[in-house]
């Protein structure tokens, strides 16, 4: 009976939290629902490149800027480019809004070809066989001047996809897959 009551309390608490999220306006949601330009500034730590891209103009995505971001997020090992899910850029934009950060995002890993992913899997632990990186739906990064734990907390609060926390390697992973965390 105690186990049932504990599970029931958890379920009620989760339901109440979900109701609160549904009713109360979220700054992250407001950031996306307001029709204004969305701009990202990033540094690619592996290539030394920097980019500032206005990927959304307040009315729609700007295809030329998305193409520039696709190239920036390319698999630098094989120089292969893939279309990146614009939802990933939206997540990152929302995340910066939640954190109140204007610092450039430090990209560690964006798109990875299957060959690159398999090579990394052979030599490193924790590389998923069916990684969202290979689908153009994931990135590993940190933000200069923002603690990694705060980046993680903000990403988790968005409930917008996967969030991985790698403090020893100094990065957070986000993706546009199902909501989950590790």
Verbal overview:
This protein has 182 residues and is α/β, with parallel strands linked by helices. It has two domains: 1-25; 35-181, Muramoyl-pentapeptide Carboxypeptidase, domain 2. The chain is 41% helix and 21% strand. The chain has helices at residues 2-23, 27-33, 63-72, 86-99, 114-123, 148-158; strands at 37-44, 50-57, 105-109, 138-143, 162-166, 171-175, 180-181. A seven-stranded mixed sheet has the order 2-1-3-4-6-5-7. It is globular and about 45 Å long. Residues 8-31 have low confidence and may be disordered.
- Helix vs. strand class: alpha/beta
Number of helices: 6
- The Rg value, from CA coordinates, equals 18 Å
Share of helix, binned: 40-55%
CATH fold assignment of the largest domain: Muramoyl-pentapeptide Carboxypeptidase, domain 2
State the distance separating the first and last CA atoms.
31 Å
Total count of strands: 7
What's the structural blueprint in terms of helices and strands?
Elements: H1 2-23, H2 27-33, E1 37-44, E2 50-57, H3 63-72, H4 86-99, E3 105-109, H5 114-123, E4 138-143, H6 148-158, E5 162-166, E6 171-175, E7 180-181
Parallel strand pairs: 1-3, 5-7
Antiparallel strand pairs: 1-2, 3-4, 4-6, 5-6
Helix pairs in contact: 2-4, 4-6
Keywords: Cell wall biogenesis/degradation, Hydrolase, Metal-binding, Metalloprotease, Protease, Signal, Zinc
GO molecular function: metal ion binding; metallopeptidase activity
Organism: Intestinirhabdus alba
């Amino acid at each position: 009976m105690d186990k049932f009551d504990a599970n029931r309390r958890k379920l009620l608490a989760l339901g109440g939290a979900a109701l609160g999220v549904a009713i109360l306006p979220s700054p992250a949601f407001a950031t996306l629902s307001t029709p204004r330009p969305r701009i990202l500034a990033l540094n690619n730590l592996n290539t030394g490149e920097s980019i500032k891209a206005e990927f959304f103009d307040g009315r729609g995505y700007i295809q030329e800027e998305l193409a520039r971001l696709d190239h920036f997020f390319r698999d630098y090992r094989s120089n292969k480019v893939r279309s990146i899910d614009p939802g990933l850029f939206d997540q990152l934009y929302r995340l910066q809004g939640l954190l109140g950060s204007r610092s450039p995002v430090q990209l560690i890993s964006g798109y990875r070809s299957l060959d690159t992913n398999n090579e990394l899997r052979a030599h490193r632990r924790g590389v998923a066989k069916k990684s969202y990186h290979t689908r153009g739906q994931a990135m590993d990064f940190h933000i200069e001047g923002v603690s990694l734990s705060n980046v993680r907390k903000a990403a988790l609060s968005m409930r917008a996809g996967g969030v991985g926390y790698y403090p020893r390697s100094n990065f957070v992973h986000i993706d546009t897959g199902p909501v989950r965390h590790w």
